[in-house]
Design brief:
The complex is a heterodimer of chains A (99) and B (266). By secondary structure, chain A is mainly alpha-helical. Chain A is built from three helices and no strands. In chain A, α1 packs antiparallel against α2 and α2 packs antiparallel against α3 (56-86). The longest helix of chain A has 31 residues, at 56-86. Chain B has eleven helices and no strands. In chain B, α1 runs antiparallel to α2 (31-51) and α2 packs antiparallel against α3 (55-80). Chain B starts with a helix and ends with a helix. The chains are: A mainly alpha (99), B mainly alpha (266). At the A-B interface, α1, α2 and α3 of A face α1, α2, α3, α4 and α5 of B.
């Protein structure tokens, strides 16, 4: 098995995540799609690190994980706030931000 | 570089499962089921990291992603309502097909790029991981990327503060006291609100569960006696089969009091 198979898997997972963001309308599911995209990129980074024999790729993947953790905290807090005011987590007509 | 046979077996065992679990994100209606699929993908990814000579990242993946991030997702799902499902009515016409088209297009473009890329012969991390993987990572993290590390620290503190601020609920208006609550309750009687606490669910000889309504003095089931959540989910039970189960003796009173309902139930 050539090592590039990992990259193909990363591409497939990334596309599925992107499609989930485009298709679904539950804010939480959309958010999970974003997480899936970040994870796919991490897999690609780890594979690149192995191909080049350089650990920097793994360090970058580590940074992506930390940023994703911070992003999840803020994003979910926003979803909870919107849910409290609107009683719904659907993104269909969230236009609260235009004053 | 070709991988070892063991790794190939691992890959071909995990990859289809991961893609299936990820597809759940697209096709499963309930958000909780999608979350379980994403958890499966993330755990499989951790195994793949370890196979890719990144044991530290594998452990961090389990701890941070499956342990913290996905559990946070599940907590929020519990707050928002476990059975929150997507509505299937489309607000933008043809959104589903356009979205699928874009997703497939992205897949084709990325695969095309990947197919045309000339990657160098894989080196492997045996040399870089000589002094164990975490040690090698630490050397780079605290050598070349010290500034990035500091910025990440600031980011985490900011995110924690943002989480606190965003979910903080400010009290609007005065706190309502017992006096006001009781006055409100009495004032609501005219509008059909009960003055007393709501009745408890039914307690019968054969059944003593939250989902069976109690019978009122007129023999009719009291809707309010079943908790609201069960009523919304449609999980409340019809009391009459329960009441009628022994058919002799006990139900005579109810039959005498509410013959009409008993007949309806059968």
């Amino acid at each position: 098995m050539p090592i590039t198979h990992y990259l193909v898997l990363a591409v497939v997972l990334f596309s599925i995540g992107a499609t989930a963001v485009l298709l679904r309308r539950n804010a939480i599911v959309i958010f999970m799609g974003v997480e899936l995209m970040l994870n796919a990129t991490n897999l690609a980074l780890v594979t690149f690190a192995r191909i080049h024999g350089d650990l920097t790729g793994q360090v970058l993947a580590f940074f992506v994980m930390v940023v994703a953790a911070a992003e999840v905290v803020v994003g979910l807090a926003i979803i909870v706030t919107i849910f409290r005011t609107r009683r719904s987590a659907s993104v269909d007509d969230v236009n609260l931000l235009n004053g | 570089m070709m991988t070892s046979t063991g790794e190939a077996v691992l890959f071909w065992a995990l990859a289809p499962l991961m893609v299936l679990a990820a597809l759940g994100l697209l096709f499963v209606r309930r958000a909780v089921h999608a979350a379980i699929g994403v958890v499966a993908v993330m755990i499989s990814l951790a195994i793949m990291y370890i196979a890719n000579e990144a044991p530290f990242l594998g452990v961090v993946q389990v701890v941070v992603y499956t342990g913290a991030v996905m559990m946070l997702f599940l907590f929020v799902l519990m707050l928002v309502g476990v059975d929150s499902a997507d509505s299937l009515t489309e607000t933008i016409r043809g959104q589903r097909w356009i979205g699928l088209l874009f997703g497939a297009g992205l897949l084709v473009v990325l695969l095309g790029v990947l197919g045309r890329t000339e990657l160098p012969e894989a080196v492997g991390l045996a040399e870089a991981n000589a002094a164990t993987n975490p040690t090698g990572l630490a050397a780079i993290l605290f050598g070349d990327y010290v500034l990035g590390m500091e910025v990440i620290g600031v980011l985490l503190v900011t995110a924690a503060l943002a989480g606190l601020v965003l979910t903080h609920r400010r009290r609007i208006g005065q706190r309502r006291t017992q006096r006001e609550l009781s006055r409100e309750r009495v004032a609501g009687v005219a509008g059909g609100r009960a003055l007393t606490p709501l009745p408890a669910p039914g307690v019968y000889a054969q059944n003593n569960a939250m989902d069976t309504p109690a019978l009122g003095p007129d023999g009719r089931p009291l809707e309010h006696s079943v908790p609201r959540v069960l009523r919304i989910r449609g999980q409340q039970r019809d009391p009459f089969p329960v009441v009628e189960a022994p058919t002799t003796g006990t139900s005579a009173v109810e039959q005498a009091e509410a013959p009409q309902q008993v007949e309806e139930a059968h």
